């Protein structure tokens, strides 16, 4: 569970749980833990490296010594291994709906062949895109600035206010409006920074 990417995964995961009664508690604990860790890491980076802090503070920390570099490398691998299947789960479930109530789904051999083939194609496609598209990391940041900000901050607050304005207390309204404004401001700042980095990368061939 991660503080900013789980919004697209949680509904599908919750829908597939055998007992979803404790899902709200799990989500709250996961978000609080993840956000706390993000704040600690961000504060550590700002206080330790100052203006030289990279977009990923792990890049700074990995230059400190070989032991830290190894730990960060292993942690990054663990993050990828745990994160990738969580997001791919949604895509695979959507693809599997194509064969719902067909002979492929009813026959075990055909079904396992379908699962193996589709997972292989999806995996190869995602890896291929990451390798072939130039400055893929910056493009993902650009996507995050637009889609991520809207899905995490703007849309939830806006639609909740729109649908339940008469039922919310003034405190709830104030908090949600504050989150909406903060989301728009920070999203705009990150969008400007990402576009600047992308233009610089294309002009010079070097990432900021």
Automatic annotation (TrEMBL):
Cell location: Cytoplasmic vesicle membrane
Any single GO BP term: neurotransmitter transport
Keyword field contains Metal-binding: no
Listed GO CC annotations: cytoplasmic vesicle membrane; vacuolar membrane
Primary localization: membrane
Keyword field: Cytoplasmic vesicle, Membrane, Neurotransmitter transport, Transmembrane, Transmembrane helix, Transport
Residue intervals passing through the bilayer: 26-47, 67-90, 111-133, 139-161, 177-202
Membrane topology category: Multi-pass membrane protein
Keyword set includes Acetylation: no
Highest taxon of the lineage: Eukaryota
Domain Amino acid transporter transmembrane: 2-195
GO MF, any single term: L-amino acid transmembrane transporter activity
Family according to the record: Belongs to the amino acid/polyamine transporter 2 family.
The protein's name in its UniProt record: Amino acid transporter transmembrane domain-containing protein
Protein's organism: Clytia hemisphaerica
Upper lineage: Eukaryota, Metazoa, Cnidaria, Hydrozoa, Hydroidolina
